[in-house]
Amino acid sequence: MSVTVAELSVTGDQLRAAVGTFPSGVTVVTTLKEDGTDVGLTVSAFASLSLEPAMVLLAVDNASTSLPYLTVGAPLGISVLADGQGPVAYQFSKRGVDRFAGVATQRGRGGVALIDAAAAFFVGDITAAYPGGDHTILTVAVRECGTHETARPLLYQRGQVHDWPEYQI
């Protein structure tokens, strides 16, 4: 049995509330404009896609002013933000500001900016873009990656970022 979009009765608010209960990590995604200017945005829709070949995917809101620079073949940096980097997540989600102002970065392969002290990083190239409702799904071939072994990831749940809870299992 297949379901058509016209048959769906879930509202955006209902979906946001239900999906928002599932915590995810928070990333800052970066690329370069043709003139070499940095572009960056906060993305929480990020996941592993394939181990062989090494690939990840992310989804970017179609209304994002950064989306036009996230084209097939473009170099991409992904910084998985660490505990305490909530202000960086918020800064990269704002419009009309220099998102890189005051943020320590280093350069990865292809010259993309990577956020210092992030829990992990990925550098690669965008291989494909697919429509996904009000978002565009991007696949990325990973050329290099690494972790900051002692860092815990920043979490995103119910529309807010959260530092790692202090408890022992």
Automatic annotation (TrEMBL):
It comes from the Bacteria. Its EC number is 1.-.-.-. SMART domains: Flavin_Reduct (SM00903). Residues 19-163 form the Flavin reductase like domain. Keywords: Oxidoreductase. It is an enzyme of class 1 (oxidoreductase). Signal peptide: none annotated. GO terms for molecular function: oxidoreductase activity. Belongs to the non-flavoprotein flavin reductase family. PANTHER family: FLAVIN REDUCTASE (PTHR30466), FLAVIN-DEPENDENT MONOOXYGENASE, REDUCTASE SUBUNIT HSAB (PTHR30466:SF11). This is Flavin reductase family protein. It comes from Corynebacterium nasicanis. The lineage of its organism: Bacteria, Bacillati, Actinomycetota, Actinomycetes, Mycobacteriales.
